[in-house]
What we know:
The protein is α/β, with parallel strands linked by helices. It has a single domain (3-42, 52-152), classed as SPOUT methyltransferase, trefoil knot domain (Alpha/beta knot, 3-Layer(aba) Sandwich). It contains 5 helices and 5 strands; from the N terminus they run βαβαβαβαβα. It has a 5-stranded parallel sheet with strand order 2-1-4-3-5, sandwiched between helices. α3 (85-97) crosses α5 (134-152). The longest helix has 19 residues, at 50-68. Belongs to the RNA methyltransferase RlmH family. Its EC number is 2.1.1.177. S-adenosyl-L-methionine binds at residues 76, 108, 127-132. Its main location: cytoplasm.
Amino acid sequence: MLRCNLISIGRLKEDYWRKACEEYEKRLCSFCRFTITELPESRLPDNPGKSQILAALETEADRVLKLTGDSFVAALCIEGESVSSERMADLIRTLSLHGTSEISFIIGSSFGLSDRVKKHASIRLSMSAMTFPHQLARVMLCEQIYRAFQIINHGKYHK
Length: 159
């Protein structure tokens, strides 16, 4: 069974975000082994300088890259490719048909992802040209992964 990992910097603070992700996690267990891993966000001063931000992103990159192993890595970043739900389903289907056993989706901190993570990624994806809070982006990604599996399996969820 395909393993899908969502690796995120930072944790969900509000209960309603956690419950939404838990609902999709429960639904996804029929299609894949889905896990969510929260990694700590680097602590920065209130007004960090560019070098402090870059150092924090590199520390976060070390934590992220330790978890990706040999998986296909999809980094979520603003400069990534914006794909439709159908294209996302096609990507997952194609990867699994060609022997990929694990996909890791990466969501960075409020400062994004280091260039090292982006370069390591097999694909860069963008949720939208709009900016969303990280908590909402995580729920949206969970929903889109679930929708992709519904599309692949001809489920009623996607119309």
